[in-house]
Amino acid sequence: MDSTTLALLEKIFLTVFPLVAIVSVGFFYARKRHTDMTTANTINIDIFVPALIFSVLSAKSFDLPQFQMLAVGAAIIVLGSGLLLLPVCKLLKVSPKTFLPPMMFNNSGNLGLPLAVLAFGEHALPAAVVLFLVENLLHFTVGLYILDHKTNPINVLKMPMILATIAGLIWSTFDLHLPVAAATFIEMLGQISIPLMLFALGVRMTSVDLTHWKIGLWGAILCPLSGLAIALAIQPLLQLEPLHFTYLVLFGALPPAVLNYMVSERYQQEPHQVASIVLLGNIGSLIIIPATLFFIL
Question: Membrane spanning segments where (predicted)?
Answer without folding.
Answer: 12-30, 42-62, 68-92, 104-121, 127-147, 154-174, 180-203, 215-238, 244-263, 275-296
